[in-house]
Structure prediction request, 110 residues.
Amino acid sequence: MPSQLALLIAILLEVVATSALKASDGFSNLIPSIVVVVGYGAAFYFLSLALKTIPMGVAYAIWSAVGIVLISLVGWIAFAQKLDLAALAGLGLIIAGVLVLNVFSGTAGH
Prediction:
């Protein structure tokens, strides 16, 4: 499996698990709680596959940035959590930072 695909799967599983964490209501709802545990376990498994060829800092930067943006969208859509202008600006800066890391840095292992 290509490392980029493993990283994408890891990110999506982490977003699902984090969404379920909110829905678990402090681990008082069984099904979302199971999704949390299985989702995070699977996410870290796929992250470990990605780390075979993607540098750790780069993988974690991508994981964090994409995860933050996606979970913010899930919060907005599924849980009616508001994103104000400052939040949107911050998300934009996070995305910009990952782009700089991947486009201009030699550590990205191009």
